[in-house]
Write a structure and sequence with these properties.
- The chain is an alpha/beta fold.
- It has ten helices and twelve strands.
- About 35% of the residues are buried.
């Protein structure tokens, strides 16, 4: 075998990132049988087994793990070459969606590194809850989305693990109250049921006194009153108090941030996906992964 077939390479990367032949086929706009056949023929020609085909999820073998890095780099070089050849001919606007409490984490990298690296690509950023963002990608209202993954029905490729943190204003101590007063995102937020379940398991009384669909509203409420909230660790203001078991607050599961792509994404969308993967997928090791996954069901 003298070369790596580009179509088989694309199928390999898609299966590796989604953990499913079905999901990979949906991303590529092909049939499941076609993707499975491409991988099977490739494994036969290489005389190597690239995937362990489990009942619920397909996982990479050790040799498949080694190949994945090279495959992604080859795909990125292909996209770079196409971008050079087709400059000015492709639509360069990319509609990116995420919950607004992830802006602190992703916004700096996008503005300081992605925009200078891809000056021809313009970003259109939209905020919403994860379940709506998934639908918006499926309906082509968005080109790409970063979501909080639902463990019961996981979608997308995990690119980041993020701690959830109990937090309060610097000079406020709401955790000392017999009944904790909460400021939370409204129903539809995937983290909200986890927060309430954790309080119930810890036998802590609670009451939601303020809800807001955007992080600015949550921050204003916490700044203004004796209220407690939960945010991704990257979104907690520097002056706020972070609370944990030593303050009587229960442990919370880790958020799994995933990237959701449409079928046959355009070149600028692939460029953004490659950038996000390189920036945020450096380490996905989670010390208590099994227990956290069991809790992440909202």
């Amino acid at each position: 075998m003298r070369n790596l077939d580009s179509d088989a390479l694309a199928s390999f990367v898609a299966v590796a990132e989604t953990g499913s032949f079905t999901a990979a086929a949906e991303r590529l706009g092909r049939t499941q049988a076609a993707v499975s056949m491409a991988i099977g023929k490739w494994e036969e020609r290489l005389d190597l087994r690239l995937f362990d085909r489990g009942h619920r999820r397909v996982t990479l073998t050790p040799i498949g793990e080694r190949l994945l890095g090279y495959a992604r780099r080859i795909r990125a070089i292909e996209d770079e070459a196409l971008a050079t050849l087709l400059e000015g001919r492709n639509e360069s606007r990319v509609r990116l969606g995420m919950p607004d409490d992830y802006l602190t984490l992703f916004g700096t990298a996008l503005m300081q590194r992605f925009v200078p690296q891809y000056p021809k690509v313009s970003l259109d950023l939209q905020y919403d809850f994860s379940h709506r963002l998934e639908y918006m990608v499926e309906s082509r209202e968005l080109d790409i989305a970063i979501i909080t993954q639902n463990a019961v029905e996981p979608k997308g490729e995990i690119i980041r693990l993020e701690k959830q943190v109990w937090c309060a204003a610097a000079d406020r101590y709401p955790e000392r109250e017999n009944c904790i007063q909460l400021a939370l995102f409204p129903e539809g937020c995937r983290a909200r049921p986890q927060v309430l379940s954790a309080l119930d398991r810890a036998d802590r009384r609670w009451r939601i006194v303020y809800s807001s669909s955007d992080i600015a509203g949550i921050q204003l409420a916490v700044h203004s009153g004796d209220l407690l909230t939960v945010l991704p660790e990257s979104a907690v203001p520097a002056s706020w108090r972070k609370l944990g078991p030593e303050d009587g607050m229960p442990e919370l599961p880790t958020l799994r941030l995933a990237m959701v792509l449409p079928q046959q994404p355009r070149l600028p969308v692939r460029q953004l996906a490659t950038f996000l993967r390189a920036e945020f997928q450096r380490s996905l090791v989670e010390p208590d992964a099994d227990s956290n996954a069991a809790m992440l069901t909202a």
